[in-house]
Amino acid sequence: MGMNNGYTRNPFVRKQSLAQSTHKPYMEGHHIIHFAVRQSFNHSLDVYANLICLCPICHRKIHLGLKEERKDMLKEIYEQREERFEKSGLALTENEFVELG
């Protein structure tokens, strides 16, 4: 096992996906709070706190998965990001956050 340098493993990175052209691992960026609701916020949604890297499978799941699976993912993301959201002016309750997803 290698050192993790103090980083917490993202639970939504299930396995590495490899790019066909390079055969190297890749991730997909996802705006956690969708830009479609940006008018509801006084602060930009294009901030670090609102971005997460997901494996391609989890990225599709968060967009297209079963409602309960998406809800579970969003609750876990909220637990990890609540403080970052508040510091970025994106304060929400867990229920508000899950409803936006």
TrEMBL record:
InterPro entries the record matches: HNH, HNH_nuc
**Pfam families in UniProt:** HNH (PF01844)
HNH domain span: 25-63
Question: Which residues are in coiled coils?
Answer: none
Note the CDD domains from the entry. Answer: HNHc (cd00085)
Record GO terms (molecular function)? endonuclease activity; nucleic acid binding; zinc ion binding
What name does UniProt use for this protein?
HNH domain-containing protein
* Native species: Dialister succinatiphilus YIT 11850
What lineage, starting at the top, does this entry show? Answer: Bacteria, Bacillati, Bacillota, Negativicutes, Veillonellales
